[in-house]
Batch of 2 targets.
Target 1
Amino acid sequence: MFEEQRLFGLATNLMVGTVVFSLIAALIVFRFLTVRLRMLSESIEAFRASGFTTPVPLTLPGKLDDEIYRLSAAFQAMSERIAMQLGQLEQVDRQRRELLANVSHDLRTPLASMQGYLETMLIRADELTSEERNRYLQVAVKHCERLGKLVQDLFELTKLEAHEVNPQIETFPIAELAQDVVQKFALKAQKCQITLVAKCEPDCPPVRADIGMIERVLENLIENAMRYTPVGGEIGVEVRPAGARVELRVRDTGEGIRGEELHNIFDRYYRVDRSESGGTGNAGLGLAITRRIVELHGGDIQVESAPGLGTTFIVDLAVA
Ligand SMILES: Nc1ncnc2c1ncn2[C@@H]1O[C@H](COP(=O)(O)OP(=O)(O)OP(=O)(O)O)[C@@H](O)[C@H]1O
Ligand SMILES: [Mg+2]
């Protein structure tokens, strides 16, 4: 009888012990799971509180490759992507607003000028001599041309940036093109008393590129060189082979560009001298267009400059 009671007591103790042990074990597992879930939910909350801009790194205790760990890793990757895309969207929006502000400023100046001249012609129609009328009309036409150039440049750059331009690639002698473009500027250079020379090496191989676009690159670089080179200066356009590439150099003896400005000049709307207003028709788009065209051809554009001594732009293109 006594033996039975002892056995019964032992069995009861064992059962109670097992139940207590199971309870403690379940509690530990439960706590382990809830701690990790709580950390995950706190991370999600912190990400939301940061305005979805700062992804929170998830550092879960234990290195278990279970569902919670995979869920956390997926959330971390997702939050990083959301933050990155949000950043990109904000940047695009900032650029769009900047572009709108710059465009409206640059369009306003020549438009106001043109309106002024045309209104004067209307109001004083009876008093104006034919020379005066001609002069006013010429000024209005000039502003009209500037507006046209600005709109055309903007249109071109927007299309290049949106990758909507397909270059018509063909093989052509780059040296001949350089000489033709230099020829186009010869009269203007003469008027500005600037020496403009083309130096093309005779054994220069042809390149594979869009001829119209490369012409545009040369025009932009020569136009800049003319604009920033004083009377008596010199501009040289050189074409020479450089290994498997062809190097195109536009060198001037103009005012040069300070070192700290060199990184910015290829940005759209960047002008070293901001006081050079949009009224002059120089919006600061030329080099941005030039760089996009060169990149579209898998080439590269570099600039070297010494203030007071001159500037050299170097474009390299693949040979045919
Ligand atoms: N050869 C150069 N010598 C000195 N400064 C230059 C030269 N080329 C460019 N720059 C500087 O870089 C800036 C940007 O040139 P970019 O061609 O993009 O614009 P822009 O000539 O002012 O206007 P746009 O080309 O739109 O008519 C210029 O405003 C000028 O300050
Ligand atoms: Mg320019």
Target 2
Amino acid sequence: MNYRHAFHAGGRADCIKHVVFVGLCRALTRKRKPLFVLDTHAGRGAYDLESEAARRTSEAETGIARLLSENAIELADYLGLVRAFSCGGRWYPGSPELARAVLREGDRLALCELHPEDAAALRQRYRHESCIQVHCRDGYEAVHALLPPPERRALILIDPPFEQPDEFEKIAATVDRGRQRFPTGVFCVWYPLKHRAPVRLFHADLLARRIPDILDIQITWREPVDPARLNGCGILLHNGPFGFSSSAETLLRAAAPAFSETDSSVTITRLADELAF
Ligand SMILES: C[S@@+](CC[C@H](N)C(=O)[O-])C[C@H]1O[C@@H](n2cnc3c(N)ncnc32)[C@H](O)[C@@H]1O
């Protein structure tokens, strides 16, 4: 496990994931019933943007720093959460902290992280919070183990580091297994968009598994033709809340101008309808 999220926190792809994740958490907490959020690859929860790792890549400068300075009204909710957390711009919240900020009393958050140091950091951070459980375990395996939840409503964030060549296959198999255990769960998967070919195979795999109700959300800041570079990212939603497609489009179109380089685009595609199979 070489990947450390500290090098990428607050970068463009991280911000896009979090903008959508916050939007989803908000949409799912509109109903009064309790919600269970499972973050399968949680990271360490909070990131110091002045750390050596963050300075080495400077990813936050072209990510969260630009979004904060453009200050698009459509992103006010997410930006407000980031500002409230950041202590004057120094810290950036990970998905655990964003979920924690949005969840209500009675909701529950489970965080899986395989790297022992990051899992220990999460344990320390949430040691006094009884509604947040930290697991130092494989996040894919946890989808099987922790679903269905007693709350009967769940958002599952799958945000792996994409270090392994079979990461897309693992995700497709996990969503498939997860929805068989818990058919109403909302699955949100982040993926890198370097080149379109692996994403096409991923989509084909999901469809071959006859997974219905899939929305695919993509943003690029460069034409995705160089497999060695992160040219954009995608978020795949299974069982997303009603109307979320247009909310996602509004959010991403608001973020796109801050991130654009040579070629920027936002694409929202319904890959499979609710009753597709
Ligand atoms: C992209 S980062 C997560 C970032 C976090 N979700 C956020 O948005 O703030 C991916 C994390 O997954 C961890 N990881 C890698 N393989 C894992 C596995 N099989 N199960 C759980 N965590 C894993 C890595 O150590 C890394 O911290």
